[in-house]
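Recall that a protein's primary structure is simply its ordered list of amino acids. Everything else, from secondary elements to tertiary packing, is in principle encoded there. The following example makes that idea concrete.
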Amino acid sequence: MDEPEDRPGSAPATDTAVPTRLMVLGLAHRDGSVHGSELYPVAAACGISDETVRSCMRRLIADGLFLRDGEGRDAVFRPTDAGRASLEVTHQRHLMAYAQDAAGRGWDRRWRLVAFAIPESRRAARDAFRDHLRTLGGAAVQPGLYVSPHRWHGEVVEEAARLGIAEHVSTLSTEDLDVGGETNPRVLVDRLWPLAEVARSYEAFIATYRDVPERLEAMRQRHERISEQDFLPGALHIAIRFSECFDADPLLPPELLPRPWPGREAREVLARCRRIGVLAREDKAGPGLFRVFDDAIAHLP
């Protein structure tokens, strides 16, 4: 489940190369908690030092995403409301991506818009709200006006209320979106979202990992097992590479995307790597790294 040189899942990571934050969030249980008893051994297997982990956790706590319960390696880091909201957005994005892939559609031909004029005195809330809209796949039409083809109003209103800026936010929907005189939906998405760049990222991911499921299956057929020292870094590496594509993907409905869209193939490659890799894992009771992937894949036919 790692870069496909030599044995799948063999290259340990270094502190400077690995987004420790991604690993930490990937260890979150379904209630959002991160357990130190799992966190430090997984980090060690991935070549990440204890100090790097502690620094990352201090930052997550300072950012208001987690609270610490206990000390040292036995500590449990519990998500705040903001932390739970962030984890839930990621979870729902993965579920939506695979659901759209399976259905082959997802648009009702309506555009949803969010307009906001948040005072400079609330800059932190304004920046957080703007980031949230982008995470949900929104695109800026102009300053203070974002658009999405998804039914996102409930999530938008909830986040505005959480940030205490609901009075500064307006939502609307329309079938007639005109941006600079352009109304064609496919032309609009090309103008508003960086689809070509996202497609290139997915294509690079596919080129790197396309053959890994077959190699993992061959290992399994030979009754070979992937040790934790190989499985955990491998799972982290593929998550890093996939997240580089996925986090930039607005997850537009299939009707608005070029055909074929490489995001779908990339998710299929990831799903096969996860399914076969977990079957070949030596310690099947080991820490559940990146459960969010497995939860999404579990909904596939």
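The domain at 1-105+193-301 is CATH 1.10.10.10 (Arc Repressor Mutant, subunit A). The chain has a mean pLDDT of 89.
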